[in-house]
Write a structure and sequence with these properties.
The structure holds two protein chains of two kinds.
Chain A (H helix, E strand, L loop, with lengths): L14 H21 L4 E4 L5 H6 L3 E3 L1 H10 L3 H10 L8 H12 L3 H5 L11 E5 L5 H13 L3 E4 L10 H22 L5 H23 L10 H7 L1 H5 L4 H19 L10 E6 L7 H10 L2 E6 H4 L11 H8 L9 H14 L4 E7 L12 H9 L3 E6 L9 H17 L1
Parallel strand pairs in A: 1-2, 1-3, 3-4, 5-6, 5-7, 7-8
Helix pairs in contact in A: 3-5, 4-5, 8-15, 9-12
Chain B lengths: L5 E7 L3 E8 L4 E8 L4 H16 L6 E7 L11 E2 L2 H12 L4 E6 L4 E6 L5 E6 L8 H11 L6 H6 L12 H13 L4 H17 L8 E4 L1 H5 L1 H11 L12 H11 L4
Classes of the chains: A alpha/beta, B alpha/beta.
Chain lengths: ~425, ~260
């Protein structure tokens, strides 16, 4: 019988430092929730985190918690709890698993960080619908639960070229939040502080981009699976010095790997682009599956989503509005296709895999003919796999494996 | 080259296990089909034994052996594994060496595989995690209608007024079947409706190219389903001599490759 190959992706040394700063981040939130010394804002992952930080809030991201629930494979136990109170199994499984976990009084933070018993209670919830409309409903549920204010930014969708009117409307929505945030935080808005935070966010973003771009090297020094883990600071700590320092460290390690011709996947034969959400509960399984095929899934739209090159400290509101509207997820299919086409060329990709995540239509770009159009235009073969970000009831491991193996066979025959 | 050299392909599907033995001339000289059951390794071994006997050869004559299908990793005598998608493509191109769209209807999944004029795969699709349009759907319906699976093909062929089933989901379709039974519709018309439902689910998976091949156990046991598909798409469909063995033959052809 043919034996399974044991190739695995190379571990990143900087992981220990990342774990340390992430632990500090969660403990600080936990302390603030207990003592009330600092106000806590819950924010969507691509929301106006910079504004909240500049107003003196500690910022917590429910989407990050959703990903933790997925990665620890706890989600599937909690989703039914949210279904039972009226949140459909067809909507965002971050929402349903997070709300379900809250109802059950369980959080993966307790396992990861001794002494933390619950998610930190918010003083305000701030969403941005640039991810999807589900975040609004998700935050609304908690606003009602905690009896705290809910603020939000409503983003344009299907944007082709980002114009002045788009940017100004978002900038105005952000500015309009300031009086409420001043009242909740008890702090006066300070433009210089916002400029400082946006500057740090921009530095974080630029470094994160540099890290991800190292995957253009052949062989690639990192994988998509590393990216999904190491994007943590870019999501929850951007706007802080810790995130900037961390990505300097990580970048140095990637550059060292390149200098040593060190591949993240030993014997890299094929280079794959991942379009869509990760299957959080299968990160390790998928990573091992591809490594065994000497294939590196090395780049993704998903990890790139925390690159905000438009941030400009000198014009914080307008540049934040631009950065959060230039985002892939809110763009038209035409703009998305151009983006993916550029990525396929930049990362020297052999094939693209689209993840059709059942409960995340906004991050599933394979439902309106895009794979067929891009394959015709670029000649890069594509594969669609059905699954979900968090709800493991919606995927078949065996079908995924057969599809992936068959796709690699197809690449071998080219 | 000695014709005594043999190449074994084993396709362990969710429903049936198939073994095909080819000689060096790529002639099919032995084969067997058994229910996969609960011990894939044992079933594969049983099929191998029967195939060797049919081919009048022994296991010592095996030059190379490749396994495929859901249970491909459970075949103890296989040197390598290949996916069933690759093996169906290889098998079909062997019988029909031209560009093809291959429709394989298996016990648990459907595949549409496209190959170019040189036999290279250009793309493929499998059904989503759903039994609609698969052999499992027919098994469920035969149970609901209390008709042996092997009688469905003959019954469908007798239908004069097909019942239309609209649901995508197997469970909902079963409810529709019960509704039709309640309304006193003829069993033959319901069975044809069930067949039509399978075909619709498969055809909506992908666009077809000019030459279409159908393979798999469902096709092997239900030739009327192929006839219905031909009527729907308006052209002749190619079917290999042993449609259920195509994946196993493809695996044996992979084994035969690079051996003179």
């Amino acid at each position: 019988m043919a034996e399974e190959k044991k190739i695995q992706r190379k571990m990143i040394k900087a992981t220990g430092e990342m774990n340390r700063i992430m632990a500090d981040y969660f403990y600080e939130l936990n302390e603030a929730a207990k003592t009330g010394e600092k106000k806590i804002a819950w924010c969507t992952s691509v929301g106006p985190a910079e504004l909240l930080r500049a107003m003196g809030f500690l910022v917590y991201f429910p989407e990050n918690h959703g990903a933790m629930l997925g990665a620890t494979r706890m989600s599937t136990d909690f989703i039914p709890e949210a279904n039972a109170i009226g949140y459909s199994p067809d909507i965002c499984s971050y929402l349903t698993s997070d709300v379900g976990a809250y109802i059950k009084g369980i959080t993966p933070l307790s396992k990861a960080y001794k002494g933390i018993e619950s998610v930190p209670k918010p003083d305000v919830l701030v969403f941005n619908t640039n991810q999807c409309r589900d975040v609004q409903d998700w935050f609304a549920w908690y606003a009602n639960e905690f009896r705290v204010p809910l603020l939000g930014i409503h983003t344009h969708r299907g944007v082709g070229d980002v114009g002045e009117s788009h940017v100004q409307s978002i900038a105005k929505q952000m500015q309009a939040m300031v009086p409420s945030l001043e009242e909740i935080s008890g702090n006066k808005f300070d433009l210089d502080e916002l400029k400082r935070v946006v500057k740090l966010s921009r530095q974080c973003s630029d470094l994160w981009k540099e890290v991800l771009d190292t995957a253009a090297n052949v062989p690639a020094p990192l994988t998509f699976y590393d990216g999904t883990i190491h994007m943590g600071p870019a999501v929850v700590l951007r706007g802080t010095q810790q995130a900037v320092d961390y990505y300097k460290l990580l970048l140095a390690e990637m550059q060292e790997r390149i200098a040593n011709n060190d591949a993240a996947v030993e014997g890299e034969r094929f280079r794959i682009y991942w379009e869509g959400m990760p299957v959080w509960g299968r990160l390790s399984t998928h990573s091992k599956m591809f490594a065994a095929l000497k294939t590196n899934v090395l780049a993704s739209t998903y990890c790139n989503s925390w690159i905000f090159t438009d941030f400009d400290p000198e014009d914080p509101f307008t540049s934040m509005a631009k950065a959060y509207t230039e985002l892939f997820i809110v763009r038209s299919d035409k703009a998305k296709e151009k983006y993916i086409k550029d990525m396929l060329a930049f990362f020297k990709v052999d094939g693209i895999i689209y993840h059709d995540a059942k409960t995340c239509p906004n991050n599933s770009n394979c439902r309106y003919g895009m794979p067929q159009r891009l394959e015709k235009e670029t000649g890069v073969p594509s594969l669609i796999i059905n699954g979900d970000l968090n709800d493991l009831r919606l995927l078949s491991d065996e079908q995924t494996k057969t599809n992936v193996e068959a796709f690699i066979e197809q690449l071998e025959e080219r | 080259m000695s014709l005594k050299k043999i190449y074994v392909g084993t396709d362990v599907g969710s429903s049936r296990t198939k073994v095909a033995i080819l000689n060096a001339n790529k002639d099919l000289i032995g084969y067997a089909v058994e229910k996969s059951g609960t011990d894939f390794s044992v079933t594969a071994q049983t099929c191998l034994k029967a195939s060797l006997e049919m081919a009048r050869v022994t296991s010592k004559d095996i030059t190379k052996s490749i396994s495929t299908g859901y249970g491909r990793k459970n075949v103890l005598f296989a040197d390598e594994t290949k996916t069933e998608i690759g093996c169906h493509a290889k098998g079909c191109y062997h019988f029909f060496p031209t560009s093809l769209t291959i429709i394989d209807i298996g016990g648990q999944d459907n595949k549409i595989v496209k190959i170019d004029e040189k036999g290279r795969r250009t793309g493929f699709k499998m059904n989503r995690k759903c039994a609609a349009g698969t052999g499992a759907f027919l098994e469920e319906m035969s149970a609901r209608l209390d008709i042996p699976l092997e009688e469905m093909d003959g019954l469908a062929a007798q239908s004069q007024n097909m019942v239309k089933l609209g649901s995508f989901c197997t469970v909902f379709s079963a409810t529709e079947v019960l509704e039709n039974i309640r309304q006193g519709k003829k069993v033959t018309d319901i069975v044809k409706g069930v067949f039509f439902s399978v075909i619709k689910r498969v055809l909506e998976m992908d666009a077809l190219t000019e030459n279409v091949v159908m393979t798999g156990g469902v096709v092997a046991h239900n030739p009327y389903l192929v006839k219905m598909t031909e009527e729907i798409i308006g052209r002749k469909i190619l079917v290999p001599l042993h449609p259920q063995l195509t994946g196993a033959v493809g695996a044996a052809l992979y084994a035969r490759e690079n051996d003179g």
